[in-house]
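ugh ok fine here u go
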Amino acid sequence: MFTNVVTTCFVVLVIFHICVSEPHCSKFHYEEKLLEKMIRLEISVEAMKKEIEESRNQVTTTLGNLQTERSTWEKTLLTTKDTSVTALDTAIQETKTQVQDELNVLAAEKERWNKELKECVKIPEVVVFSARNPKDTSLTNGQTMVFTEIILNKGDAYSKENGVFTVPYAGIYTFTVQFCVYPGKYFDFAFMANGTPFKRSRIQRHSTSYFSCYSFDAVTIVDKNDNVKIKIIGCYSGTTLGESSDYYWNTFSGRLIQAI
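structure:
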């Protein structure tokens, strides 16, 4: 609408100018010139309208492109933001998980070290045992002596099932064995620690009229979980040992002297 108004005003001004400035001439010549000018003016106006329309189309297209590009950038920014936030949250969660795992490992390691430290500095309780009544009174070579009746077992380290004392604390220990032997009998035996003898001895009864008991002591240093026992390493066949609950016992005993 604005374009039509401008065009009309322009035509009126041109006609006014023509009427004022044109020299006086014949009516035909005047109309011819006027028509020619109007045609040229109309052509110019059409050209201007076309140019204005093209410019408006270009502006519209440019604005549309800008709007599209803006929308694209907004979507890209939103997508990038969401992706970045998600990636950041994931990274944070993974880091927290790794840190927690490392803290758990450190806590377990601390607990293990504390336990080992307590074991190292733990003051041993009294360790002492005594047992009597051998399972077998007829001895055989290589036999482990099993004393089946517990008299004392502070620390629960001696087993009446297999005759083995399992060392609960590393240290210096003393052991004692007593055998009551029939007349005319003999045998050899050893104090054993992990299969290695730390004292050997022999009992030999020459008299045929007296019954006798013999005691032997041995001291050794052993580590935790070592085993100590009495082993027969040579013997007389037949019944060798005697046991009387009222008068004489065969015994095996030991105690911790000093922990190390």
